[in-house]
Amino acid sequence: MRVMVTGGAGFIGSHVADALIEAGHEVSVLDDLSTGNRDNVSQRAQLVTVDIRDADAVERAFAELRPEVVTHQAAQTSVSVSTREPARDAAINVVGSINVLEACVRHDVQRFVFASTGGAIYGEVPEGERARVGWPTQPLSPYACSKLAIEAYLPMYRHEHGLPFTVLRYANVYGPRQDPHGEAGVVAIFCLRLLEGRPIQINAMRETGDPGCVRDYVSVDDVVRANLMAVAGKIEHDILNVCTGVPSTTLQIAEALQHALGIEAELTFGPRRAGDLERSVLDPSITHEVIGATRSLSEGLADTARWFRDRS
Ligand code: NAD
């Protein structure tokens, strides 16, 4: 099939594109290279440098590349940027996504896969609980609102225009190629700092000195598998959490990475960051039924740490 990966020069999108190529698909990447990197894009994929806010440029790219399936990963991905610049976040994540959806309709795309957020869409998940897809959504950042907005458009596009869709609500994704210079992506940030011999900071969940926020960390390998199945139309659910259901504090991640790299770092403890949820853990029962077992955290972190070490 001809598959377009928007955001395919980024962390997750580039892994999805590589796996689609391996599976025999003809892959195009639509990306403005704002946070993505040309070097992430396989020689076997066709890269078009387009900002999804530019509807005419999106239209020209679809006319040229004629995708049959689109997996839409391109986004403004930072929660904290979204709180500082909510209009820019919405311009990319809402209006840009609509530009892509409109092009899908005009060019008879057969399926649309949407990278949404399980990590932000449910709001706070109380201690001892894991958020199921049926839970009420409670977006507490402009970023989460923008993802939920597109989730709301999708049934309308299916009803009005016959465009089938799958929403993948990713938990906290980690793996090779994640940007270690951003504000999010604690695994990548810690790997880089450890390898550079710099201290690593645990931002508080509530009070400075606590072990940090609780998150559900999922390997990019599992996210790729979910995307491949969704592209092939093998996921019957409209919405799927892509998660492990295993809660980890930031401190536990720091300890696991120190162990994996054999490097002991100085730990510093910072205050709570505005906009950070205290606890976000998702229910993986349907995930496991659909995509099979997810990778163990210790194994996935060890592989990721090795990748960063080999590159440093
Ligand atoms: P990333 O920043 O590495 O990838 C995003 C890609 O989109 C980049 O290549 C960037 O250049 C491109 N992009 C940004 N704005 C664009 C625009 N206006 N036009 C065209 N391209 C544009 O981030 P990622 O972590 O790989 O995220 C991929 C997707 O997964 C995003 O939709 C993100 O919201 C979602 N997601 C990620 C996580 C996570 O933990 N990383 C969790 C939940 C959801």
Mean pLDDT: 96
How does the helix and strand content classify structurally? alpha/beta
Which ions, cofactors or small ligands are bound in this entry? nicotinamide-adenine-dinucleotide
DSSP helical segment count: 11
The portion of residues assigned to helices is 40-55%
Cα radius of gyration in angstroms: 19 Å
Order of strands side by side in the largest beta sheet?
A: 3-2-1-4-5-6-10
What's the main sheet like?
Answer: 7 strands, parallel
In terms of DSSP E residues, the strand content is 15-25%
Order of helices and strands: EHEEHEHHEHHEEHEEHEEHEEHH
N-to-C span: 37 Å
Number of strands: 13
Uncertain regions spanning at least 5 consecutive residues? none
Identify the overall geometry.
globular
How would you sum up this structure, described in words?
It is a single chain. The protein has 312 residues and is α/β, with parallel strands linked by helices. Helices cover 42% and strands 19% of the residues. It has eleven helices and 13 strands. The strands form three sheets. It has a seven-stranded parallel β-sheet, sandwiched between helices. Strands 7, 9, 11 and 13 form a four-stranded mixed β-sheet that branches. α2 runs parallel beside α4, α7 crosses α9 and α7 packs across α11. The longest helix has 21 residues. It is globular and about 55 Å long. It starts with a strand and ends with a helix. 47% of the residues are buried.
